[in-house]
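Notes, p. 3: input format for complexes.
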Amino acid sequence: MNSSSSSSSGGSMVGGPADPEHDPAATYALEPDEVASLTRRLVATAGETAVSVSPLDGAPLAHIPQSSDADVDEAFRRARSAQRSWARTSFAERQELLLRLHDLVLDRQAEIVDLIVLESGKARKHAFDEPLHIALTARYYGRTLGSHLGTRRVPGALPGLTRVEVAHVPKGVVGVISPWNYPFTMALCDGLAALAAGNAVVIKPDAQTMLSALLAARLLDEAGFPPDVWQVVAGDGPQVGGRIVGQADYICFTGSTATGKRIAAGCAERLIGCSLELGGKNPMLVLRDADIERAAEGAVRAVYSNAGQLCVSIERMFVADEVYDRFVDRFVARTEAMTLGATLDWGNDMGPLISRRQLDVVTAHVEDAVDKGARVLTGGRARPDLAPYFFEPTVLEGVTPEMTCFDQETFGPVVSLYRFHSEDEAIARANDGDYGLNAAVFSRDGARARQVARRIVAGTVNVNEAFAASFASLGAPMGGMRRSGLGRRQGAEGLLRYTESQTVATQRLVPMAPAFGVSDEAYAKMMSAGLRLFRKLGRA
Ligand code: NAD
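Output follows (540 residues plus nicotinamide-adenine-dinucleotide):
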């Protein structure tokens, strides 16, 4: 594996380390004015701050003001008030703002990507996926909100006499609780759909990546969204997140399955809805007719994007016996050719993990597997010489059910390889466990691969790609089955989750009851005859 040692800021607010050669003690600094201007967007008046750290060098990055209970309440008060007029804006007005945001995000991508890399440590090419995803989201909902949300006529009880319209009304104030792994896109993509549907948002991003989320809020302001429809609060997950769950009209949560269960319980208590985008232990199947070079290339992105800290990344690979050795050879070679580094420039194929906690989890999973007999084909070690929380891209063989990484999410750059003899067996093993978020199938025969895909228990299945094909297809819903979540983001579902269906039925000319002297008995006979007739005519 190669290690990159160059650095460059590529943006205006970030200064790189003084030494152009890699220096583990070097710090990346943010302009204090810039931090202050971003954190002004927070509702946080109590005077307490928390320090965030850059995974590039482990050095303190910014002091983030923390929100008290009263601040969260104030954020909801402002959001509720702003939502009433926001809900009355036309679809055309919302469309214009969304498309303006699309342009703004593409124009300002260098600044956005710098901040993401600085806060999360991910390789620049993986950080670029975030403004890209937001541009796709803004364009998709900008172009389609009218068709998804428009009031529609449906057949009434009495044809010609009962006129029925179904409208989608906003829920009110949506609480968004987002994770650190995709700090810009996760702080924006779900909330954008909530805004498009006429809601206001109170968001609590993860404490480690507040600045990326605050930059997202600033871009919304610059695009022209009324500032009060988007409130940002900061603080401890259970405390601030819990207060959001206690007041919102709907919760959109992305994070771990353990936290998701707690949030679902809080929502159940208040009888409000929620969507939960949770963890996975995603499988990839390499069928015997797969293009091996393409599968190996896809596997590298499948496993190591954002150092594996991606809910839809692949942690289990099932490879047909006939091609196993060739595939493993190519995959390991491509893994070892990756450039590793913790810098702001484009040169790295993979960056460090986000935190000591994440490094400890990944190290523990690999050590546990090795202690119980798994073989390390490549990687397997922390690399503090590159950055404090760096872990090498790691391929394991011989992983068995008693090892932690067999069925528990590692959320790091570690994959287990398994050989299979029949596709039925591979599908059954892929479907083992409690998760069901994402899967991938590689085969030269698209139709056969799609048949296999439909038998896999997962909310998204990608053919000849790992996750990007489904994730970047904004018209398609994305989310998990089983313990990987509830509800869907993206597509019509991603918008309609934030609305209540409201039916307005207008009865004309005759009441829905006997009239003009018709007896109850005659009315019952007429209605029965009418129903039989409609059944014959094939009406709904
Ligand atoms: P986490 O559940 O610890 O934290 C996620 C968010 O929830 C953070 O903002 C945190 O402050 C907040 N939080 C924590 N406890 C809370 C509580 N009791 N009440 C309210 N809010 C609370 O998750 P994490 O470890 O930061 O993120 C990694 C996990 O997220 C992984 O399991 C990953 O698979 C999952 N994830 C899923 C998706 C998806 O789309 N399915 C995307 C990204 C991450």
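The two ends are 63 Å apart (CA to CA).
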